[in-house]
Amino acid sequence: MKRCLTVGIVAGELSGDNLGEGLIKEIKIQYSNSKFVGIGGPKMKNQGLQSLYNIEELSTMGLFEIFLRLPRLLKIKTALVQYFTKNQPDIFIGIDSPDFNLRLESSLKQIGIKTIHYVSPSVWAWRPKRILKIASATDLVLVLFPFEKEFYDKYQISCKFIGHALADIIPMHSKQRKAQKKLQLDHNKQWLAVMPGSRLQEVRLISKPFIETCIMVRKKHPNIGFLVAAANEKLEQEFKMIWNFLAPDLEFIIVRDEVHNVIIASDSVLLASGTVSLECMLFKRPMVVGYKVNLLTAWLLKRLVRIKFCSLPNILAGEELVKEFVLNECTSEFLFPAVDNMLRTDHTTLIERFNQLHQSIRKNADKEAAKAVLKLISK
């Protein structure tokens, strides 16, 4: 019988929980006698993860918010180092959340634990000197996009391009009518999905300009319906509070825990920049992207960010495929004309481009990630 393999693993966001779920499932297929301990969300826990803390403890948005929560984050980091020092795993995997996980990985590597960072920080976009910290903190980086592999190779840092698990999960063609039926939507209407974020602070900042945009859209497109995807009850209640204050007469259908079905059922999407922009690209839905942060974080980002685009479809393509409005431009004044144009435009060429990008990152990521983990353990 094979010895029991212990994998330390920490995800700090719901998107990381999705990746962690697939990775744990695939490791168990390739090495059945394995156990997992660290921090994760409901999907990772359903795969058998022993989660030492709630994933929401690590979910922060913006530099200012991280500063406010720093004492608690440091306390959790110290406790995890103590736990993994006493109960040493065969390997440790940090999924995304680089400001937390890279520090943890560095501490664990110093005591002889092999470390992997899964999902590269955006070193190609801002704070490029972090590449040196990544090199010292990790034995291997698993990256989702081909341009990231090229960046790491320039610095001769151990890295493997595995593609993105979402590109494997999401089919090349989706069934809109089936999703509309499941959500009990009128298929004769045009549907705009409204997605103001998966974090509480995002919903607080971005819901207002999105709702104001929807008010203007309804006046010009009276037959349109609005769908809102809420990741959990807390986010749903926050959106409802802002909605009832700004436009209680405007109808939104709020759907919880059905992000993919909301995207599939929609004809187009108004969204906060993040993983959801990639999901919309993979589902071949046209989108308009908006994003806001608090004033201090915005001030810092303007001085630190080195790239032209913020949404993954544009970054992957290296050109503007979808309209983006960030910081001061994330207002209905800018968003409405773009959404109005999106609702009236034929998107055949855009969909073809989305198909090409989908294929470029469809590499059986869960299986490739698990193979890389087990290979590093065996060295």
From TrEMBL:
It holds the Pfam family LpxB. It is an enzyme of class 2 (transferase). It comes from the Bacteria. It catalyses: a lipid X + a UDP-2-N,3-O-bis[(3R)-3-hydroxyacyl]-alpha-D-glucosamine = a lipid A disaccharide + UDP + H(+). The keyword Glycosyltransferase applies. GO terms for biological process: lipid A biosynthetic process. GO terms for molecular function: lipid-A-disaccharide synthase activity; phospholipid binding. Keywords: Glycosyltransferase, Lipid A biosynthesis, Lipid biosynthesis, Lipid metabolism, Transferase. Its EC number is 2.4.1.182. GO terms for cellular component: membrane. Pathway: Bacterial outer membrane biogenesis; LPS lipid A biosynthesis. The keyword Nucleotide-binding does not apply. Belongs to the LpxB family. Condensation of UDP-2,3-diacylglucosamine and 2,3-diacylglucosamine-1-phosphate to form lipid A disaccharide, a precursor of lipid A, a phosphorylated glycolipid that anchors the lipopolysaccharide to the outer membrane of the cell. This is Lipid-A-disaccharide synthase. It comes from Candidatus Photodesmus katoptron Akat1. The lineage of its organism: Bacteria, Pseudomonadati, Pseudomonadota, Gammaproteobacteria, Vibrionales. The gene is lpxB.
